Each structure stands twice: as C-alpha cells, then as structure tokens.
Amino acid sequence: MSTTWEPVIGLEIHVQLKTATKMFCRCRNGYGGEPNTQTCPVCLAFPGALPVPNRRAIEETIKLGLALECTIADRAIFHRKNYFYPDLPKAYQISQYDEPLCANGRLVVPTADGEVEIGIVRAHLEEDAAKNVHVATSGRIQGATATLVDFNRGGSPLVEIVTAPNIHSADVAKRFLQLLRQTVVELGLSDAELDKGSMRFDVNVSVRPAGSDELRTRTELKNMNSFNFAAKGIEREIARQIKIYENGGTVDQETLHFDPTAEESAPMRSKEEAQDYRYFPEPDLVPLHPAPEMIEGLRGQIGELPTARIRRIANTLSFYDADVLVTGGLDRLWAAVVDGGADPKEAANVLANAFVATGINPSAVNPEEFTKLVASRSEIPRAVFDDALSHVGDPGFSAEPYVAQKAVSDASALEPVIAAVIEANPGQVEQYRGGKQGLLGFFVGQVMKETGGSADPRVVSELVREQLGA
Ligand code: ADP
Ligand code: MG
Ligand code: ZN
C-alpha cells in the first residue's frame, strides 16, 4: 500500500517600505546610516513619546492590497504584539491583528502547466524591530562575544503578506515569491532586496494524502532570503515529513533553521516555547478609515501587473521566456527593442542570458542603442558583442563603435589568413595531423590574432579543421 502525498505550503512575507521616514516617527527610514544615528524618543521608546502614523506607508500598503485584489478595510486598527527581545525597545511591536488594512486577495501565478491562484489571507502594516549585531568574526550569534543593538531599523514600516495554505509545490512557491517581489518593486513600494533584508519570508510546510483536504501539522522555516533556498528547504521538508508518516510517526510543530549546506534542517524552537503575544488594541492610535476617493486614486496608479504581462508575452514567446523577462524586470526593455525592429526571440535570449548573469540594471539601458547592438549580433565577433553587452548599462553607451567592428566571417577573406598561419607553423601542423587535436585552439587563436579579433571564432574553427584535413 502506498499513499501519494500532497504538499501544503503557506508563505508569510515581510517587505520593508522605502518611505522617506519611519512608520510612527519622523526619523529617516533607510539602510546604511552610522548605527543609532536615525533614532528619536518615539522609536527608542522613551516614556511618554507618542506614535503618529506615516500616511505614505498606509497608502503604499493599500496600493499593494489593491494589486493583490484584496478587500481594503473601511476600518482598520493597530494592535500591540508583546514580547521581550533586545531589538524591541517598547517590548511590543505595533502591528495589526484582527482588523488589517487588506484581506482576502489573490495572486495568479502563471506556470508552464497553466495558471495557479494563490489566496492572500491578509496584507497588513507594522513596524520593524531594530537590528542585533553579534560582535564576532562570523556575525552569527554562536561564538559572539557581545551583542550590540542598532536602532536605525527599529520602527521602519513593514508590510506583512500572508498567503492561504494553498500552494502545492516548491516550484509554485518560488514563482509566487518572484512574482510578488516584482509586483512590489514595480509599484515602487520597496527595493525588496533579498540580500539586504528588505524582503524576507517564512515558509510553512505540511503534507497530506493526495485528495484529502485536511490540514496536518506544519513546520516553519524562518527568515529565508533566497528563492532557491526556499525551494530547496521546502523540498527537503516535504521529503522529511513524508518519511515520518510512512514510518508511522507524527510531525511535531516546530520552527526549523534551514542551512543549505547541511544535510538536515535543525530545530530552532518547538511548540512548547511558542509565544503568547497578548495582542491588544494600541491605545495611542485611532482607527484608520481609508477614504474611498483615496483608494480609487491609488488604484489609478497601478499599471499592467506582472501576471498580466507574463500572460500577454507568453502569446509571443514561450512561458519560460515570458517569465524570465517579466520577473527579471526586463520585459519593458524587451518590448522597446522589439518595437525597434529586433527579433523577439533573439532579443529575449540576449536579455535573459546577459542581464540575468551580469546584473545590469535594465532601466539604465538606452533601448535604441541596445536595439542597434542586438541587430548586429550576427555580424560582429562574439567577443566584441559580449564586451559591448557588459557596457550597455554605462551612461552614454553607444553601439556604434562596437557595431563598426564587423566580423570577418566570409570564408574568402579568411582562407588566405588561415593558409598563412598553417604555413608559418609546420611543427604544430605535423603534431595536429599526428592526433594532437587539442592544437585546433592554437590555430584558431593565431587566426584571431591575425584578424585583430574581428573573425568569428566558430567560422574560423570550421575552416581551420577543413584546411588541416582532420
Ligand atoms: P499563525 O497565526 O500561527 O502564524 P496562520 O494561520 O496565520 O498561523 O498561518 C501562518 C501561515 O501558515 C500562513 O501562510 C498559512 O497559509 C500557513 N499554514 C497554516 N496552516 C498550514 C498547514 N497545515 N500547512 C502548511 N501551511 C499552513
Ligand atoms: Mg503568523
Ligand atoms: Zn524615530
């Protein structure tokens, strides 16, 4: 007897808003200041200091809620979430509990096998904690000699987005996260940079017999900051739970620490230590009643969203190309290049290969110059093209000097050069003909040198092989 298991995954995502000031005070909100320079009596929790909500943060949260097709509450309130930790000077975090700003939305995730709708339970606004800095070479708490607190981040606006437990594969979870990130970035809410912590997520995982709709005990992988690690962590957790059930065991509700280099995910804390946050309404803040005109104004600021664009572009290109272009933030540049006359597929390939690998910011690229470059791709030497690509994001980039270096791919132009190289290197020719095939590269290199790098190495290699009579 063997059961087929269905994974059940729910995500909780935190996104740091890039408002000018913090959530409840007028301190600068931003990464990178000297420790403890962006603080005031409110965000340091001096007695008697009172919070004043950041209107912009509220608007941005509503905007995201609209993009996620949520219902925007006509009354929302803040709660105090109580816990003790050195990064929380008030010993409570101002958050939202049972009356969040946004609820009951969805994000449609296109996949190669069709579209999957992921439910959004809520999107709410809260303040971030400060940052504990562990003083030791590793930067981790283990082995640290001291822990210092940098309050600059304390009180920054954070949006928390909670999905329904209706994601059923690691791949869809990863795509959801990529799509959500792109949506947030395009709405201008956040840089959502995983390596800087401006987007982080917790992953909840359980499994159940396929066909059942029960929700079994879940475990949680906390504070992940890479889409690939999240997918790996989910896969590993699914496999672990299935094994437990198949051996007749039960899964404990616990928080696991995912270390991609370790074989197993180590428990961080278990249910016994689960916290009771003693939520209660924040008495220092009045309820929020977003005005309908304000909500409609915000709705008007939302352009065509990533899901819709993937859907549209997948009519021209494959789903995979559409997905890479849109979630990589490359599709607007792609469209401009295609409008300029470039071949859609070729342009997509260049963008996907070059930009994703080099990390060039597509918004720094001049579409006209880029179009010229893509159009000349088959006519200029590969090395020249690659070099040009690495500079397309430079201010004032011009395709002209690169395009001018036309490749010599015409056999009639290359043959005399190749003949000369062969004649000049009789020793190597003999060795090559004697079986030392590796010398092909040597001849190609010589020809490239003679042509000043303007030959197409693929063509040269073909012709050299022919002339040497391998
Ligand atoms: P809590 O309030 O304890 O954090 P929630 O009900 O808010 O619990 O759920 C937190 C996250 O866990 C949500 O993303 C939800 O989709 C997910 N989740 C809840 N139950 C399960 C389950 N059985 N399996 C997987 N994910 C789950
Ligand atoms: Mg939760
Ligand atoms: Zn402050």
From TrEMBL:
Database matches in HAMAP family: GatB
Keyword Iron belongs to the record: no
GO biological process: glutaminyl-tRNAGln biosynthesis via transamidation; translation
UniProt name for this protein: Unannotated protein
Record flagged with keyword Hydrolase: no
PROSITE patterns tied to this protein: GATB
Organismal lineage: unclassified sequences, metagenomes, ecological metagenomes
Domain annotation Asn/Gln amidotransferase: ranges: 332-468
Protein keywords: ATP-binding, Ligase, Nucleotide-binding, Protein biosynthesis
Catalytic activity: L-glutamyl-tRNA(Gln) + L-glutamine + ATP + H2O = L-glutaminyl-tRNA(Gln) + L-glutamate + ADP + phosphate + H(+); L-aspartyl-tRNA(Asn) + L-glutamine + ATP + H2O = L-asparaginyl-tRNA(Asn) + L-glutamate + ADP + phosphate + 2 H(+)
UniProt cross-references to Pfam families, sorted A to Z: GatB_N (PF02934), GatB_Yqey (PF02637)
GO molecular function: ATP binding; glutaminyl-tRNA synthase (glutamine-hydrolyzing) activity
Family stated for the protein in its record: Belongs to the GatB/GatE family. GatB subfamily.
